[in-house]
Amino acid sequence: MFYDADIKGSDLPPRTLCLTYDDGPGPGTPELGRYLFEQGIPATFFVIGRHAGGRADVLRRLAQWGHLIGNHTYNHPGLVALTLAGGDVVGELTRTEEVIRAHVRGDAILFRAPYGNWREKRGPDSPDDKPTSVVADVLNKSPRLKNHVGPVNWDISAADYDYWKRGASAEECARAYLDKIERAGQGIVLMHDSSEDEALREKNRTAEATRLMVPVLKARGYRFVRLDELPQVRSALSAR
């Protein structure tokens, strides 16, 4: 089931976080997945199908370490524009499902839209979205996607990819995330273990930033849950 409104983590208890990683798997994904497992932190990896193809070993290890694997489309397009242009939006999800299906827990697959792009703007000069989603309307008509639930959005992001673009340090990125997390207090955290931009994939230092963040967050009393433990996600899964 695809909803018009985003699924977020605002109902999480204080000092509770859900770590999510987009655009992988990348070169640092196995290191990141293992570290989180060793720290007792179950995360969710929203993978791009064209990155995950041929990397069943990485997907299998992530699943074995207790992480969830979600669908982040095959080519990472802006879905509103693709839908309005009559593009193959359904294929973007089904192609990725074919890659990740064997490594997904249970029958439901969580979905996150690239860029969080889900609803049209109310007008060319409006910052606000329309209340309904043309993307959801198309995807809900496909019987092949009845097992999907989304879109899963986020509550906290410090745009880690911008740090790698300008060659900034993992320490600088980690500080920005720690500040955002402390101000929010709880929620879904968005990071990226790779990039749709091939030039950025080798520059990604999110695994290193995560290693810097986790000990600080634990010392501050934060706890970590997986996406399927969030009230909004549980509710959506039970409504299927």
Structure description:
The protein is an alpha/beta fold. The chain has one domain (2-238): Glycoside hydrolase/deacetylase (TIM Barrel, Alpha-Beta Barrel), CATH 3.20.20.370. It is 40% helix and 16% strand. The chain is built from eleven helices and eight strands. The protein has helices at 29-38, 49-52, 56-64, 79-84, 89-100, 134-140, 160-165, 170-184, 198-201, 206-219, 231-238; strands at residues 2-7, 16-24, 44-47, 68-71, 109-110, 148-152, 187-192, 223-224. Strands 2, 3, 4, 7 and 8 form a five-stranded parallel β-sheet that branches. Strand 2 (16-24), helix 1 (29-38) and strand 3 form a beta-alpha-beta unit. The chain is globular, with a radius of gyration of 17 Å. It starts with a strand and ends with a helix. The model has no long low-confidence stretch (mean pLDDT 94).
pLDDT < 50 runs, ≥5 residues: none
CATH level 3 topology: TIM Barrel
CATH class category label: Alpha Beta
Q: In percent, how helical is the residue content?
A: 25-40%
**Rounded average pLDDT:** 94
So how many helices?
A: 11
What labels would you give this structure?
single chain; 240 residues; alpha/beta; TIM Barrel; 5-stranded parallel β-sheet; 11 helices
Topology:
Layout: E1 2-7, E2 16-24, H1 29-38, E3 44-47, H2 49-52, H3 56-64, E4 68-71, H4 79-84, H5 89-100, E5 109-110, H6 134-140, E6 148-152, H7 160-165, H8 170-184, E7 187-192, H9 198-201, H10 206-219, E8 223-224, H11 231-238
Parallel strand pairs: 1-6, 2-3, 2-7, 2-8, 3-4, 5-6
Helix pairs in contact: 1-10, 8-10
